[in-house]
Specification:
- The protein folds into two domains: 11-186, Spore Coat Polysaccharide Biosynthesis Protein SpsA, Chain A (Alpha-Beta Complex), CATH 3.90.550; 192-264.
- The radius of gyration is 20 Å and the shape is globular.
- The longest helix has 28 residues, at 237-264.
- 27% of the residues are buried.
- The protein is α/β, with parallel strands linked by helices and 267 residues long.
- Helix 6 (152-161) runs parallel beside helix 7 (192-203) and helix 7 (192-203) runs antiparallel to helix 8 (210-233).
- It has nine helices and eight strands.
- Strands 3, 4, 5, 6, 7 and 8 form a six-stranded mixed β-sheet that branches.
């Protein structure tokens, strides 16, 4: 962070109740641009929201503890802000390191810009560490939902991209590390449970267009079927039955929304 070629920044380090020496390391820097705050452990969403509330600048960026930025990250993104003033959210491509080795992203992880709500439904394609966005936009969308212990970024991007276009810079400006045992995404089995919760929230939000409602219902069906199979393979028949019923109910909702769109939208 401190080696950025763009230097007019402030860094707010939110210590979410860690037990390491984060406070000592930060205070040793003697950099007036860095502010350290500590809170009782409340989760990643609460930590990010706390940092946002303290931010003085109009543009926000996030940096998770297991990622790092390329030195030109902020400079290139802020140039894009000037070049494309119609956007209030920007994100970049990324390098993946798993267990110390670089790995290639799969086709399903391919990123794009513009109106990307549909692309955000299958999985979280926007990494928080790759983003810069207008603080006012994040406030309009009510920040990160602190009730989500995981997939909180997925839920936020659904909220944001259903009504806002996003600018994508196809450059590897961040490095994401993974595969380690304390990684948040590895802390819970069946992340699609939380993605379904986010999708249901989006569907009922009143923010979606008719075709977005169709896409969302369809994705809920797909994820519920995956979870049904997962529970059944583990011999957990009650869970399998729950998601079998959920898939059936949302398949009906998808059909109703397709019929509504055909009647009122198609010409």
């Amino acid at each position: 962070m401190i080696d950025q070629t763009f230097i007019d920044w402030e860094l707010i380090v939110v210590d979410d109740g860690s037990t390491d020496s984060t406070d000592v390391i930060v205070r040793q820097s003697n950099d007036e641009r860095i502010k350290y705050v500590r809170q009782q452990n409340a989760g990643v969403s609460a930590a990010r929201n706390h940092g946002v509330s303290l931010a003085r600048y109009p543009w926000l960026a996030f940096l998770d503890s297991d990622d790092w930025w390329q030195p030109s990250k902020l400079e290139k993104q802020l140039k894009a802000v000037g070049d494309f003033p119609q956007y209030r959210a920007f994100y970049t491509n990324e390098i993946w390191i798993r267990r110390g080795r670089r790995v290639n992203q799969k086709r399903k992880h391919r990123k794009s810009g513009g109106w990307i709500y549909q692309n955000c439904l299958p999985l979280c394609i926007i990494s928080p560490s790759s983003v810069i966005l207008k603080k006012s936009l994040l406030c309009e969308t009510n920040g990160f939902d602190e009730s989500f212990p995981v997939c909180e970024d997925y839920e936020l991007w659904l909220r944001l991209t259903c009504q806002n276009p996003v600018c994508f810079l196809d450059e590897d400006l961040i490095v994401k590390t993974g595969g380690h045992s304390d990684q948040l995404s590895r802390s819970r089995w069946g992340l699609d449970r939380f993605r379904i919760r986010a999708l249901e929230k989006s569907f009922h939000s009143g923010r979606l267009t008719p075709i977005q409602r169709v896409w969302t219902a369809r994705e809920i069906v797909a994820k519920a079927q995956i979870l049904e199979t997962g529970y059944r393979n583990r011999g957990k028949l009650r869970g399998a039955s729950k998601y079998e019923d959920l898939a059936a109910n949302w398949a009906k909702a998808e059909s109703r929304n397709v019929q509504f769109r055909s009647k009122h939208i198609e010409v």
